[in-house]
Design brief:
Elements: E1 8-16, E2 19-23, E3 29-34, E4 46-52, E5 55-61, E6 67-71, E7 76-81, E8 85-91, H1 98-110, E9 114-120, H2 125-134, H3 136-140, E10 144-147, H4 158-164, E11 168-172, H5 179-186, H6 190-201, E12 211-215, E13 223-226, H7 248-251, H8 271-274, H9 279-285, H10 291-308
Parallel strand pairs: 3-5, 8-9, 8-11, 9-10, 11-13
Antiparallel strand pairs: 1-2, 1-4, 1-12, 2-3, 4-5, 6-7, 12-13
Length: about 300
């Protein structure tokens, strides 16, 4: 018999270092190791594995629809594969970094993954009003932005659950945004599942160091992926010339530039630069490009151009 015929299908539902947890079609979970020195399988991957005693070996990885990751000068950090949505969670307090939000959205755009921005702590009236105003450019450019309050509630809003139904969603969020609370509300058994996986992966007490997939329903159609937090989000894999095309508010004006290789920074006849409004003017009309978003573009373009030299 051909050895390949004995390979079994599975879904990677957790990963830590060189070890991954693979779930079989009937719901069994098996600890698997990579074939070779480097583990290429990530959470969300469909794989083919070979049983070996009580464990298994990853032999092949099915073709991915997408791969969400960040990259800086030192390393590439992979979050998950085959995603439908990236949920980026921000909060009214502590104040969120718009640069960090923009980076996560650009990474999602690069992989053609639909973003969902969730603004938490809507119960904090004045701080939330300020946060909601800061998110106005993202609503104006067509991103789905959902207000949320987890305070004094045992569950998660039905509106959010509806957006997650039938999808595989990666949840991202800085410290203090409420990401862990949200996951525990959506998946009450998450803590127990995490401890069980941590024991199997032999990661001891460091339960937050690995990425984990949780099912939101018994039919295993809706999945939530929790990944370790991050302080920086490198975009070194993005070419500077491609940056504007990954920012919807700038992308809308790319065909209006006089020069085909316009950087949108200093060239005459630039459609992007001419669409940048003054702060008060943009706040009133919410048309064109907000000055703060344009500053984010300028900063990222300079950063990526500098990195491309090395």
């Amino acid at each position: 018999m051909n050895a390949r015929a004995e390979l079994r299908p599975g879904l990677v539902v957790a990963g830590h270092g060189r070890h991954v947890m693979v779930e079989t079609p009937d719901g069994q979970r098996v600890l698997c190791h990579p074939r070779g020195k480097k583990n290429q399988a990530v959470v969300g991957d469909r794989v083919r594995w070979e049983p070996q005693a009580d464990e298994g070996t990853i032999e092949t990885i099915d073709e991915r629809r997408n791969l969400f990751y960040r990259q800086d000068e030192l390393r590439t950090k992979t979050f998950a594969a085959n995603l439908d949505t990236v949920l980026v969670m921000v909060a009214a307090d502590p104040e969120f970094s718009e640069h960090q939000l923009a980076r996560a959205l650009i990474a999602a755009e690069a992989q053609k993954i639909a973003p969902l921005i969730v603004a938490n702590k809507a119960d904090l009236t004045e701080p939330f009003a300020r946060a909601w105003q800061r998110l106005a450019p993202y609503r104006a450019m067509g991103y789905d932005v959902l207000p949320l309050s987890l305070r004094g509630s045992d569950g998660a809003p039905a509106e959010l659950r509806e957006r997650l139904t039938g999808k595989t969603t990666l949840v991202l969020g800085p410290s203090g945004a409420g990401k862990s609370t949200l996951i525990n509300r959506l998946v009450p058994q998450a803590q127990a599942a995490t401890q069980e996986i941590s024991k199997a992966l032999n990661s001891g007490k460091h339960t937050t160091t690995h990425t984990t997939l949780y099912w939101l329903d018994d039919t295993r159609r809706s999945a939530l992926i929790d990944s370790p937090g991050f302080q920086e989000f490198g975009l070194q894999n993005i070419e500077p010339a491609a940056l504007a095309s990954l920012m919807p508010d700038l992308r809308a004006h790319l065909g209006e530039c006089r020069f085909y290789n316009c950087t949108h920074l200093h060239e005459p006849g630039c459609g992007v630069a001419s669409a940048v409004k003054k702060e008060g003017e943009w706040a009133t009309s919410q048309r064109g490009i907000s000055p703060h978003r344009y500053r984010i573009y300028s900063d990222l373009f300079a950063e990526l151009s500098q990195e491309q030299r090395y």
